[in-house]
Amino acid sequence: MHEYCIEYRSKAIVDLDITLDCGQSFSWGKTPEGHWQGWIGHYPAQALQVGENRLILKTKAPEAVAREYFQTDESWESMIAAFPRKDKTLQAAMRFAGGMVLLRQPIWETTVSFILSAQKQIPHIRALTLRLRERFGKRLAKDLYTFPSASVLAKASEEDLRACGLGFRAKSLSIAARQVQSGEVSLDRIYAMDYEAARAELQKLRGVGPKIADCICLFALGHYQAFPMDTWMIRMIKEVYFPQTQTLARDRMEQFAAIHFGKYGGYAQQILFHWMRKKWKRPFKKKAPVPSRRVP
DNA sequence: TGGCAGGGGTTGA
DNA sequence: TCAACCCCTGCC
According to the model, what pLDDT value does residue A288 have? Predict the structure, then answer.
């Protein structure tokens, strides 16, 4: 296990807590001692922030791998400079979560995690990925299991996956794993694609629609223009940017986000998302009660 | 304490 | 466009 320090080149103030807790990754948790424990690819790691923009890592991951994962050489300041200047909502979010950076995570782990994220909250997604590791990963040490590969998950039965508490997501994950394992969808090839092509290719996977494809583009491939249009963003765009508009089509919102937030819109999206989750606990008008869909 | 609503979405009709 | 999918959490 090595211990070394890495420093962000183009960001004066980084916030590791926000970076690892904002919902882009589900493989990190904070220990009672206050350091982060998680994974840099298939290397277990501990991370602790020191000063304003340095991290101390304890891990077997080579330094170059860790720098790539934490994106220490990315031009964060110039991305922020390209954000819309007059957007007061984004400015408020920046004051709260501007220390966030985006990680560059392994594509398969990211794909699986976000297939599991449908209709789930962050702590629950964490619990599900942990169960997948424990059930299908390789045991490195006590309580340390690698993330299971596509070929391992492709061999698992849907029932086995369901037993991990995946619910209806088990079928999606089972099919998606087989699509990757068989080469029907090649994740390696997606690395070489531009944003539009990668987004389209990812949506060939079962359980991956436009939102999850954008998450994978943003958190695994570094396509910063990918703007995951989740329910929080839909509500925010309607309330903040189109308060007078009664009905707003999804296409129109995507168009607006692409133009307004620009080529680093995905970075802005994640900052807005985290700010909304933490600060706008009940920000929206309560929906009118709807009759339960459950059959008695 | 128990019941119910709702959750970072996708699919298929 | 909308119901269905599974299960957990938070609220009343």
Answer: 37
pLDDT tens for each residue of A190-220: 999 999 999 999 999 999 999 999 999 999 9
What is the three-class DSSP state of A4? strand
> Tell me, in Å, how far CA of A293 is from C1' of C4?
9
Please give the single-letter amino acid code of residue A255.
Q
Q: What is the pLDDT of residue A185?
A: 95
Nearest nucleotide to A122 (CA to C1') is: B8
DSSP labels for A256-293? HHHHHHGGGHHHHHHHHHHHHHHH-SS-SPPPPP----
Give Cα A194 distance to the centre of its chain: 19
Measure Cα distances from A36 to A29, A45, A55, A158, A289 in Å: 6, 8, 11, 33, 41
Residue range A251-288, pLDDT digits in tens: 889 999 999 999 999 999 999 999 988 876 443 333 33
Which residue is listed with tokens 């789930």?
Answer: A120
Question: With a threshold of 0.85, does the pTM exceed it?
Answer: yes
Nucleic acid strand B: bases within 7 A of protein CB = 4-11
Round to a whole number and report the distance in Å from the CA of A203 to the C1' of B10: 10
Whether any strand B atom is under 7 angstroms from the Cβ of A228: the reply reads yes
CB atoms within 10 A of CB A82: 17
